[in-house]
Structure formats: structure tokens, C-alpha cells
Amino acid sequence: MKKGGILNRHLSGALAELGHGDGVLVCDAGMPVPVGPRVVDLAFRAGVPSFAEVLDGLLAELVVEGATAAAEVEAANGPAAALLAERFPALELVPHARLKELSAGARLVVRTGEARPYANVLLRCGVFF
């Protein structure tokens, strides 16, 4: 058994399969999950695990070259907007409907237990060299 990092075997395995340019949607419990991408549902109950916990865990494991979120996050969910702005200074903001369209092309969806609106981000994988 791994002694550190991500212990969830489904998530750990899915992350190991990602390559440059692949998309990873990290979403709240209310985001419609697109058909097609691999889904790792971590939601246990409302708020558990939080969007911040899952995002920070993923960022410790992934190289991310870009991120896209819904523009509505700024007005509807201040804590998530602040978290995203801090983690991604070059965050691209698009209308929520567009984020849902882009999410259909993700290779992996990680669903959190977050129960606040617009706590979603589409990550674009980079390379470590």
C-alpha cells in the first residue's frame, strides 16, 4: 500500500494514465457529469471532501499548464473564486454553459462533495520536463 500521496486506487491509477494536454474536470456535487470521460466520484456527503481539499491533492500530483472555470464563480462563490485565483493566476474564465461544453472533452472527471455552486475547474495537464 502507498504510504503517501493519493490513496484512492481509482484516482491514483487514472492520474498515472494522463498525458500532456489531457483535461481533468474537478467538480462540485451538482455539476452535470459528462458522458464519456472516466469518472472518480469522491463525494461522501455534502461538503466532504471539499473542493479545496481535492484540488490541492491533485495539484500535488499533477503538472498543470492551464485552468478554466466558470465566470459565474466570482459572483456566486467567493471562497472558490479566491481559491482558484490564488492557485491559477492565469485562470481562464468562461460562461458556465461553455465550461460544461469543454468538460465533455475531459479525460477524467473528479467529483468532490462540495455543495457550493460553481466550485468547478477544468485543468489542462502539462509535462514535468
* Mean pLDDT over all positions: 96
Based on Cα principal axes, name the global outline: globular
Strand order of the largest sheet: 2-5-1-6-3-4
Strand percent estimate? 15-25%
Q: Biggest sheet, in brief?
A: 6 strands, mixed
Q: How many DSSP-defined strands?
A: 6
- Helical proportion, percent range: 25-40%
State the order of secondary-structure elements, H for helix, E for strand. HEEHEHHEHEE
Structural class: alpha/beta
Radius of gyration: 13 Å
The number of helices is 5
Give the uncertain stretches in residue-range form.
none
Distance between the termini: 28 Å
What is the topology?
Elements (H helix, E strand, L loop, with lengths): L8 H8 L6 E5 L10 E4 L9 H11 L2 E7 L2 H4 L1 H10 L4 E3 L1 H8 L4 E4 L9 E5 L4
Parallel strand pairs: 1-5, 2-5, 3-4
Antiparallel strand pairs: 1-6, 3-6
